[in-house]
Amino acid sequence: QVRLVESGGGLVQAGGSLRLSCAASGSIFSSNAMGWYRQAPGKQRELVARITSGGRTNVADSVKGRFTISGDSAKNTVYLQMASLKPEDTAVYYCYADGRVVGSTIGYIEVWGQGTLVTVSS
């Protein structure tokens, strides 16, 4: 039905920047919100940032002032601009979306990407 594909992860030096991208593909999807979670080894998955179809954003305190989330509702695409990266930002970053599949009777769904690894060196 719907899948999310992330890109933009990689290795970056502390203080550097990366931009993550995520786009929905497959069935026609009307998202209510999209966002980014991350999970480091031995830690729980945590919300990094999210954005609603109306443009409201929520950013975790740990990345506030450094990360910016943006999106294109019409294209079901979301971005995470990461600046001033720290080693503690190292994690697998997962794209998330929720909404409805147009023309389907399955109703509300939640979709997760496979994740993209961000590694920040000291």
Q: What's the average pLDDT?
A: 94
DSSP E strands, number:
11
Low-confidence runs: none
Radius of gyration, in Å, reads 14 Å
Number of H/I helices:
0
Alpha carbon gap, first and last residue: 41 Å
Q: What is the helix/strand order?
A: EEEEEEEEEEE
Strand content: over 45%
Largest sheet: 7 strands, mixed
Could you walk me through the main structural features you see in this protein, from its secondary elements to its overall organization?
- Strands 2, 4, 5, 6, 9, 10 and 11 form a seven-stranded mixed beta sheet that branches. Strands 1-3-8-7 form a four-stranded antiparallel beta sheet, with no helix packed on it.
- The chain has strands at residues 2-7, 10-13, 18-26, 29-39, 46-52, 57-59, 67-72, 77-82, 91-101, 108-112, 116-121.
- The N and C termini lie far apart (41 Å).
- Helix content is 0%, strand content 61%.
- The protein has no helices and eleven strands.
